[in-house]
Design goal:
Blueprint lengths: L2 H6 L4 H9 L4 H8 L4 E2 H7 L5 H13 L3 E6 L5 E6 L1 H4 L2 H19 L1
């Protein structure tokens, strides 16, 4: 577990959640992984505004916090896949609720 998450444990559970999954593109990554295992370039296409460096950093943090599982296959060319752990999959109701809230918010802003 990353240091920021451990420190958040001293504050409150909300801060732990924000520390673990609050970050540029983390919840979007989780949302796309809810549909199944993805490769890095596929995630990059699904989150086109995330540059490679940011996407890599966010995936590493999610992996370190046991939300995402990274599987590297010993092939040429190398193949790496990302999937959700059980902990990551437990975020589904939260991510889907946030997705709906975001849709409603955007629709209300258009009025």
């Amino acid at each position: 577990m990353r240091l920021p998450v451990r420190r958040a444990m001293e504050v409150c559970p909300v801060e732990v959640a924000v520390s673990a999954v609050g970050g540029t593109w983390k919840l979007t990554i989780v949302k796309h992984l809810l549909d199944g295992t993805r490769r890095f370039n596929e995630l990059g296409r699904l989150v086109p505004l995330a540059n490679t460096k940011t996407l890599t950093r966010q995936l590493r943090e999610l992996e370190e916090d046991a939300v995402v599982l990274r599987t590297a296959y010993p092939e040429v060319p190398p193949r790496v896949e990302y999937s959700l752990t059980d902990l990551g999959r437990s975020l589904e109701p939260i991510v889907m609720a946030m997705n709906e809230w975001g849709k409603d918010f955007a629709a209300n802003q258009a009025d």
